[in-house]
Design a protein that fits this description.
This protein has about 260 residues and is an alpha+beta fold. It folds into 2 domains: about 110 residues, 3-Layer(aba) Sandwich (Glutaredoxin), CATH 3.40.30; about 150 residues, Glutathione S-transferase Yfyf (Class Pi), Chain A, domain 2, CATH 1.20.1050.10. The protein is about 50% helix and about 10% strand. It contains 12 helices and 5 strands. Strands 1-3-2-4-5 form a 5-stranded mixed sheet. α1 links the parallel β2 and β3.
């Protein structure tokens, strides 16, 4: 297992700041760096924001699920990350992790804004990406485009930096990792690009790319791509064999913005 602290000044010495550990899936390429699990990144972002506010101290541990270490198997058996550990209590299911952050982690309730419009707006976006990658036809591309346009129009109408206002909330931590998968995997597998004319969406992504909560939690492009390669292989041993150059390749992170937002 690989560990990194995201304390952000939240000292535990002589203070009551609790340490929260988040166990996330490691890269399927090198088994050490951050993997491309959407829920892992979502909760990583939630907790990173709280660590920045110094309400918690955050420890992030990556686990290679292809070869999990003995102590992980002993403690968690076949459970897959994300796993949240708070004062010795392990929370194993996604909905329970979310509820625990909201109700039990100091400051967590501030992240969970109640906004039914936004909740409905971002719902099922990821399923449209998966359908596009599987079906690879124009209708699935169009369905994703329509959904992205709705998000763009919402952002343009509200005129705020983020989905519900000028400060981040749980919905942003849910949406942005999915947008990154759409951008990276969509381009690689089906040459899909988020249209440049969706300027409100691009402005939103620009703001997200400036935040440590996103950049520190974001998997490499190669890991996002390999995540879907493994899904498409479906047990095909030949396809699952890792090419040597993929293991040695320097990780890259797509964070450029293809439009001049100053002209908008």
């Amino acid at each position: 297992m690989s560990e990194e602290n995201q304390d952000n000044g939240a000292s535990r010495n002589g203070s009551a700041v609790p340490e929260i550990e988040l166990i996330i899936k490691a890269s399927t390429i090198d088994g050490r760096r951050k993997g491309a699990c959407l829920f892992c990144q979502e909760y990583f972002m939630d907790l990173y924001l709280l660590a920045e506010l110094k309400t918690i101290s955050l420890k992030v541990t990556t686990v290679c699920m292809q070869k999990p270490p003995p102590d992980f198997r002993t403690n968690f058996e076949a459970t897959h990350p994300p796993i949240l550990i708070d004062n010795g209590l392990a929370i194993l299911e996604n909905d329970k992790i979310e509820r625990h952050i909201m109700k039990s982690v100091p400051g967590g309730y501030n992240l969970f804004v109640q906004d039914k419009e936004v909740a409905t707006l971002i719902e099922n976006l990821y399923s449209k990406l998966k359908l596009m990658l599987v079906k690879k036809d124009e209708s699935k591309n169009n369905a994703l485009l329509v959904h992205l346009k709705k998000i763009n129009d919402h952002l343009a109408t509200r005129g705020t930096r983020f989905l519900t206002g000028d400060t981040m909330c749980c919905f942003d931590c849910e949406l942005m990792p999915r947008l990154q998968h759409i951008r990276v995997a969509g381009k690689y597998f089906v040459d899909f690009d988020i249209p440049k004319h969706l300027t409100a969406l691009w402005r939103y992504m620009y703001h997200m790319y400036q935040l440590d909560a996103f950049t520190q939690s974001c998997p490499a492009d190669q890991d996002i791509i390999n995540h879907y390669k493994l899904q498409q292989a479906k047990g095909d041993i030949k396809m699952l064999k890792m090419k040597k150059h993929e293991e040695l390749e320097t990780p890259t992170f797509t964070t450029s913005i293809p439009v001049d937002l100053n002209d908008q």
